[in-house]
Amino acid sequence: MCIIFFKFNPRPVSKNAYRLILAANRDELYHRPSKPADFWENNNEILSGLDMETGKEGGTWLGITKRGKFAALTNYLQPKIDIQVKGRGALVANFLTSDLDSFSYLKNVSADGHLYNGFNLIAADFNSSGDAMCYYGSRGAKEPLILSPGVYGLSCSLLDTPWKKLEHGKKLFADIIKKSQNISREDLVQELIKVMNNEEPQYPDYAIEEQGREYIQSIIKEYCAISVRSPGYGTRTNTVVLIDGEGQVTFTERTMLNCDIAQWKTSAYQFELCP
What we know:
The protein has 6 helices and 14 strands. It is α+β, with helices and mostly antiparallel strands and about 280 residues long. It has a single domain (about 5-270), classed as Penicillin V Acylase, Chain A, CATH 3.60.60. The strands form 2 sheets. Strands 1, 2, 10, 11, 12, 13 and 14 form a 7-stranded antiparallel beta sheet that branches. The chain has a 7-stranded antiparallel beta sheet with strand order 3-4-5-6-7-8-9, with helices on one face.
């Protein structure tokens, strides 16, 4: 039940404004092997965490490059998962390594969406020729959507589906970004991470129950919070990504260690986008 909130504010913007403010949670089985965010060993222009599950190695849920390519993925909640299909994490990794722009890439992905379990994919380009952000949901429209400037929320249904927890989190997120130009970058990151660790259930939510059916009945209340916390499964990673008007990127990841909800590591990266 991953969840993402973001504000897209493409150029031209003042140097004190942000072109992107994004906060995301990765929810997963605690024991699923993965690497925390870092620049790739074989490509030091790409920053992301990495899935290390057997057969899915090298996939990722969220990443960014020094060239300004960004992508993030959520699964689409469905009652039954097909274990024979392709791993969805490759959809993000492939975009980060490709030369295609975000819309063209999602256009290609839309033709092959049936080869995966349900997913949502955000892809973006932040560069000197202009910023663009696009969305494709494999259970939604056939064509990718070019996003207008604004505030968005995405969980494990289609973009801005009004699940109660998504609406609740989107309001908290919007309240913080209203003051984003008046607080330090460090304070903005910490306030966003606090939002992403809100465990207050927005329950009941019959839309989640209907979409997930029997698959989630045993932990429906836990699923109805921004931060999911249940035995063996829940929020493992908080990520905040900021891109300011001058192309400065701040990438902060807070990730669980040793399958233990009491142990966390925070990593921070800053770099400038290539012109």
